[in-house]
Specification:
This is Probable alpha amylase. By secondary structure, the protein is of the alpha/beta class. The chain is built from 31 helices and 29 strands. The strands form 8 sheets. An 8-stranded parallel beta sheet has the order 16-15-14-5-2-1-18-17. The radius of gyration is 28 Å and the shape is globular. The two termini are 25 Å apart.
Length: 847
């Protein structure tokens, strides 16, 4: 049974055997399954595993198949198991990838030519039957002249083309010419003739956005889309994970970027069928034949995961958003937004901002994909329009698309898709003339999924594989680096319009998930988060004190930095929030080593944030002068005798309140319906920033020692919160309880309890029940400041909760708090007693 997972990031510095060394710790913590980043062979030195070069081999850098067997066996001996992250959408576009290498060598004649999403017949003659390879730092002529392109002999003596550090295969027919040039040199014309003879066209890396003729992962030019919808490709990509599942080495799969696939529903159904067949062999070994499958899917506002996909649920971004939004006080939204707007400048409505960002991305970053879609639409007879006429209409429509994608497939449309298309159409019409509006109406009809002929399928596939990267790049990777209203709400998953979430909305969402996908993962941190869960929890406190914060921030921004020329106000304000959120509670400004480490991390965040925002700098056109100005300003803060000590003082003031929020969202994750997912190291304070900061090595020795120190007795919060043991204690006690009573948490009903009194709206209380087994979960919201003082939770919690009570059924049993061991009994439990020692309560039936 999959009770609780921990996500581990594997790489050469943390291998499968290294993961095995932590099994005892995670077993003691209460984890049932290690949820591993991709283990298929990736590019040499890969730090994440998503740049796969061989789906059929366990990565030797991780220890290979033998190490995976050792890990699986050791886990099974402890009653634990493994879940694998797999990457069916894309592979590394690198010569080390044998499939890709053969395509580069043989072109359309390669056995793998149709395994990748390549347009072999684009307009114009330059790329007919060829692959654009945008790997050069300049144009091909200049690269030849500078020596960036050359020839070298391979290990077998066969000539290979060397281009910007890559050894590329040569078309067999061109080998004699290449040998001549390698040994005797040649004229520029001969070199160009050699290049023209290849099945690829070397090009400047900047040309990819407008000229590439193959599907990329997002806009990354060294990750190529795989056509996993083809049966033979599916078989090759999944042979290893299916074999591992059949052999009992793994118990489930996490599907990366399911929205990138041509037909996600059909893919999930095929995968489930293959796993079910493999499960027969597992059953013969006495293992569960029910596979666990979750998909990485970001749900838009009012969007739900499709129930016709045979999966357990999502990887938990939706819950992460809900839990975080629930911590925020809605009353802080208006003053914080006004402070941002008044100082950062007049900004259009967020929807208009997103539309403009999407337009820029479509024109500058996804031009090739946009035009390919327009050409496909021009081939549809009912549109009776050229690609040139369709392109501007299509661009406006895509810029207004409200969700990641639609899911029409197999000649069948989805009812929900019609509403999303209509919403985009209505919004786009405001930017189109009447003739273009008529064309858009015909375009929407043509893309409703009902037509199953080849031209319509191609157009639909190109549409549905373009909108996901467009949505992600616009919202998560651009807008959330521009909008500084409150950075705790800029995360993977949230909708821009949602600042806070009320108790009623959270209860409805929890109930819907429990009904549709009761085994979905519940996450509050991941390898892709923008800010650690405890950074967000601390910054959420600012929503409870908006005026105090705005006054403090205004003064700090006016005084900080000395005489250094300041960056834009918006960039300084987001830097300030980052410092306040990520500042370790015990870090003193005179701790030189600790300060240097923090400022290095913040500097890396700052550089990435500036480029992702695409306003004053970007990845494609970096403004090094402005980036230097920002870096100089950060260094000036360190030299300013007052600026960082003031941040440290505020961080110390907010840290206890952040603890309250942290424990609240942790308790929700551990107690509500679903499978709690822990990101590596986040059982203690998680003050990480965006990757690679959120993928730093975990200090397991410290965590093992901390867990051992907790013991089994009653826990006093003041002794535990500063070093993170309070959070670790909550995780360990709750997960151990889930291990003892798994049916209660997997199948138990979730009944919301009535709360009365002056602070009723600041409490969520639920009862989990299955037969005689029961769990009482009570957590606060928007009360962090009132419940926390400078040294931890306020001793006078009774004064805050006053007459607030949780009302239980008449037959409610006596309770025992799993943290404090305090007993509670009665139909109305006073929060002044229930939450007197800890700000959250998880209570089990008193034995």
């Amino acid at each position: 049974m999959i009770r609780a997972t921990v996500r581990l990031q594997l790489h050469a510095g943390f291998t499968l055997d290294a993961a095995g060394a932590q099994l005892d710790y995670y077993d003691a913590l209460g984890i049932s399954h290690l949820y591993l980043s991709p283990v298929a062979r990736a590019r040499c030195g890969s730090t994440h595993g998503y740049d796969v070069i061989d789906h059929a081999q366990v990565n030797p850098e991780l220890g290979g198949l033998a190490a995976l067997r050792r890990l699986a066996g050791a886990a099974r001996a402890r009653g634990m198991g493994l879940i694998l992250d797999i990457v069916p959408n894309h592979m590394a576009a690198h010569p080390d990838n044998r499939w890709w290498r053969e395509v580069l060598r043989d072109g359309p004649a390669s056995a793998y030519a149709d395994w990748f999403d390549i347009d072999w017949r684009p307009p114009g003659r330059t790329l007919r039957g060829r692959v654009l390879l945008p790997v050069l730092t300049c144009g091909a002529r200049a690269a030849l002249a500078s020596g960036e392109i050359g020839l070298r002999a391979g290990s077998d003596g066969t000539p290979a083309l060397h281009a910007n550090g890559l050894d590329l295969p040569l078309a067999p027919a061109s080998l004699p010419m290449a040998a001549l040039l390698l040994h005797h040199g040649g004229t520029p014309a001969q070199w160009h003739a050699l290049l023209r003879a290849q099945a690829y066209r070397l090009a400047w890396w900047r040309s990819a956005a407008q000229a590439i003729n193959w599907r990329r992962f997002f806009e990354i030019g060294d990750l190529v889309g795989v056509r996993v919808e083809r049966p033979e490709v599916f078989d090759a990509v999944h042979a290893l994970p299916l074999a591992l599942y059949r052999a009992g080495l793994i118990d489930g799969l996490r599907i990366d970027h399911v929205d990138g696939l041509a037909e996600p529903g059909a893919y999930c159904r095929r995968l489930r069928a293959e796993l079910a067949q493999a499960g027969q062999a597992r059953a013969a070994r006495g293992l569960s034949a029910e596979p666990y499958v979750v998909v990485e899917k970001i749900l838009g506002d009012k969007e739900t995961l499709r129930t016709d996909w045979p999966v357990q649920g999502t990887t938990g971004y939706d819950f992460m958003n809900e839990a975080s939004a629930w911590l925020h006080d809605a009353r802080g939204a208006a003053p914080l937004a006004a402070f941002w707007r008044d100082n950062a400048g007049t900004w259009p409505h967020w929807r208009e901002q997103l539309r403009r960002i999407r337009l820029r991305l479509l024109r500058r970053h996804f031009g090739a994909e946009r035009r390919a879609l327009a050409r496909s639409l021009a081939d549809l007879p009912e549109l009776r329009a050229s690609a040139a006429a369709i392109d501007p209409v299509l661009t406006q429509w895509l810029a207004c698309f409200p969700v990641y994608r639609t899911y029409a497939e197999g000649g069948a449309g989805q009812a929900a898709d019609q509403a999303w298309r209509q919403t985009a159409q209505t919004r786009a019409n405001a930017h189109l003339d009447p003739a273009q509006q008529a064309l858009l109406a015909a375009l929407c009809l043509a893309l409703d999924g009902r037509m199953a002929d080849a031209p319509h399928r191609l157009a639909l596939r190109r549409l549905q594989q373009l909108t996901p990267p467009l949505a992600a790049k616009a919202l998560e990777d651009t807008w959330f680096y521009r909008d500084g209203t409150l950075l705790s709400r800029n995360e993977v998953g949230p909708a821009p319009a949602q600042f806070a979430l009320g108790g009623g909305a959270l209860r409805r969402s929890v109930a819907a998930r429990a009904r549709r996908h009761p085994q979905a993962l519940l996450a509050t941190a991941s390898h892709d988060h923008k800010r650690g869960e405890d950074v967000r929890a601390r910054l959420a406190v600012l929503s409870e004190m908006p005026q105090q914060w705005c006054d403090w921030a205004r003064q700090w921004l006016a005084d900080a930095g000395g005489s250094a020329a300041p960056p834009a106000w918006a960039d300084r304000y987001m830097l300030l929030q980052t410092l306040v959120g990520a500042w370790p509670a015990d870090l003193a400004p005179d701790d030189q080593a600790g300060m240097a480490a923090l400022l290095r991390r913040v500097a890396a965040w700052q550089a990435k944030a500036l480029r992702e925002a695409r306003q004053r700098s970007s990845w494609t056109c970096p403004d090094l002068a402005y980036e230097t100005l920002c870096a100089r300003y950060l260094r000036a803060l360190a030299d300013d005798g007052a600026a960082l000590p003031a941040v440290a003082a505020l961080a110390r003031r907010l840290a206890p309140a952040g603890l309250v929020n942290s424990l609240a969202q942790t308790a929700l994750r551990l107690g509500l319906p679903g499978v709690p997912d822990l990101y590596q190291g986040c059982e203690t304070w998680d003050l990480s920033l965006v990757d690679p900061d959120n993928r730093r090595a975990v200090d397991y020795a410290a965590r093992r020692g901390a867990l051992a120190s907790l013991g089994n007795g009653a826990l006093a919060l003041p002794e535990l919160w500063r070093d993170g043991r309070a959070k670790q204690a909550l995780v360990a006690r709750a997960l151990q309880w889930r291990r003892e009573q798994p049916a209660l948490f997997e199948h138990g009903a979730c009944r919301w309890l009535r709360v009365s009194g002056a602070r009723a709206r600041h409490v969520l209380a639920c009862l989990r029940t299955r037969g005689p087994q029961q769990a009482l979960i009570v957590v606060p919201r928007a009360s962090a400041l009132a419940l926390a003082g400078q040294t931890g939770p306020d001793r006078d919690a009774a004064a805050h909760w006053r007459d607030t009570c949780v009302h239980l059924p008449a037959d409610a049993p006596p309770w025992r708090d799993i943290l404090t061991h305090a007993g509670h009994q009665g139909r109305a439990l006073a929060l002044s007693e229930l939450l007197a020692r800890w700000p959250v309560a998880l209570c089990r039936v008193q034995s």
